TrEMBL record:
The protein's name: 6-phospho-beta-glucosidase
Key word Hydrolase present: yes
Top-rank lineage group of the source organism: Bacteria
Location of the active site: E376
NCBIfam families for this protein: PRK09593.1 (NF007158), PRK09852.1 (NF007356)
Similarity-based family: Belongs to the glycosyl hydrolase 1 family.
Keyword terms, alphabetized: Glycosidase, Hydrolase
Pfam families in the cross-refs: Glyco_hydro_1
Length: 478
């Protein structure tokens, strides 16, 4: 990598999600949202997959999103710390139910709008560019109860109304937008990704892909509205990225890896290219999936493709056609993965594969020819303060250094990358497990898995390291 790999104006920063940091889950007029129904513990994974026992929080369960790290009341001081690191950008999400508590209101909740006004003004004070996700695992519960969430075409119009409302309100404050966070997560954690719930005899694939069609139409309509209301803005989609390696050179493994990649590419093929790919048509036919569409849907998708591709990348995955090999698989995020002996793993079993990051970025740019924006990348680890309260998180620095180097190599390869907002600049509630002990931040938050602690913020060793990275535009990674 040359010393000039990162271009002038590269957007260094960090990424957060409203549901994982804000807390104040019923403050300021906010309505109940899907993540507010996800407790910690053994029930969480089943709920994330769509088997939801109640559309109200239950007694005796701990719901980490209800308080999270109370960013709602700490955002000014937290943003000051991000500014101290030299952030050029902060990726955040707007909580849909702060703006429309049930999702059906005609008029927005002014108190919710003002909260984000104040947040964006604070960012502007420090010359930090907001990168705003419209839907980050966040559906008003009322829409789940009344319409079955994204099962229903009705939700498309309600989302479009929400999108237009925030575009109009923040048109002078936000120039980078993302429609849906990790849209492919709908296939793996349907309640998390799209608020979908299932009964025992449901045709799950039919429901998932019908919901996907509705989200893809909603995304295209949001792109249309953004381009009309904020002509100088850029709006992208987002993929939970990370290519599948075949476990061997057995053609069956290679074909299976291609098929697994296509499961995710499907969503971006539609958002970036504007039409359903031919392989999807065969998949629908062979799985008895019949999409209900409206006249004009093809034109909507074709006419309103995204400006850039946002990606999260934490790990690569490996797949085998041999059931015995797959029985030895690692958790590897929600995707699962056969064991790959050539890469290290995190404490949570996620592969650590910076070269895979470079390969993935090249693969995506070759496929779509649109700029990339790395909007999530980081290491979840258990950080233990020493007797003086210091955290020497060299393991995090090593992970980030290697991935930033890989990103620089991808830029040298010719991949245009708008910026890098690492996940996450401050400790927050883990989306997958609901834990606090799975920490990502440069800033430690004194809070444990049960919600105990002072919420006090303190800097880790990686804080000053990342500050130096930004100050040198990625040239000094030591």
């Amino acid at each position: 990598m040359t010393n000039n790999a990162f271009p002038d104006g590269f957007l260094w920063g960090g990424a957060l999600a409203a549901n994982q940091v804000e807390g104040a889950y019923r403050k300021g007029g906010k309505g109940l949202t899907t993540v507010d129904l996800m407790p910690t513990g053994e029930k969480r994974k089943a709920i994330m997959k769509g088997f939801v026992p109640s559309l109200e929080p239950l007694e005796g369960e701990f719901y980490p999103s209800h308080e999270a790290i109370d960013f709602y009341h700490h955002y000014q001081s937290d943003i000051a710390l991000f500014a101290e690191m030299g952030f050029k950008a902060l990726r955040i999400s707007i909580a849909w139910s702060r703006i429309f508590p049930t999702g059906e209101e005609e008029a927005p909740n002014e108190e919710g709008l003002r909260f984000y006004d104040d947040l964006f003004d604070t960012l502007k004070k420090y010359d930090i560019e907001p990168v705003v996700t419209l839907a980050h695992f966040d559906v008003p519960v009322h829409l789940v109860e009344k319409f079955g969430s994204w099962r229903s075409r009705e939700v498309v119009g309600l989302f479009e109304h929400y999108a237009k409302t925030v575009f109009q309100r923040y048109q002078d404050k936000v120039k980078y937008w993302i429609t849906f966070n990790e849209i492919n997560m709908l296939l793996h954690l349907p309640f998390t990704g799209a608020g979908l719930t299932f009964q025992e005899n449901d045709n799950v694939k039919q429901i998932q892909y019908q919901a996907a069609h509705h989200q893809l139409i909603a995304s295209a309509l949001a792109v249309k509205a953004c381009h009309e209301i904020i002509p100088d803005a850029q709006i992208g989609c987002m993929l939970a990225a990370g290519m599948f390696y075949p476990h061997s050179c057995n053609p069956a493994d290679v074909k299976l890896a291609m098929d697994r990649d296509r499961e995710s590419f499907f969503f971006i093929d539609v958002q970036a290219r504007g039409y359903y790919p031919s392989y999807a048509q065969r998949f629908f036919k062979e799985n008895n999936i019949s999409l209900v569409t409206n006249p004009g849907d093809e034109k909507i998708l074709a006419s309103h493709t995204v400006d850039y591709l946002g990606i999260s990348y934490y790990s690569s995955r490996t797949i085998s056609s041999d059931p015995e090999v797959m029985r030895q698989s690692t958790s590897g995020n929600v995707f699962g993965s056969a064991n790959n002996p050539y890469v290290k793993k995190s404490e949570w079993g996620w592969t650590i594969d910076p070269l895979g990051f470079r390969i993935t970025m090249n693969q995506l740019y070759d496929r779509y020819q649109k700029p990339l924006f790395v909007v999530e990348n980081g290491l979840g680890a258990m950080d233990n303060p020493d007797e003086n309260g210091n955290i020497e998180d060299d393991y995090r620095i090593e992970y980030l250094r290697e991935h930033i180097q890989a990103m620089g190599e991808a830029i040298e390869d010719g991949v245009p990358i708008l910026g890098y907002t690492s996940w996450a600049p401050i400790d927050l509630v883990s989306a997958s497990t609901g834990e606090m002990k799975k920490r990502y931040g440069y800033i430690y938050v004194d809070r444990d898995n049960q919600g105990n602690g002072t919420n006090t913020r303190s800097k880790k060793k990686s804080f000053d390291w990342y500050k130096k990275v930004i100050a040198t535009n990625g040239r000094d990674l030591d």
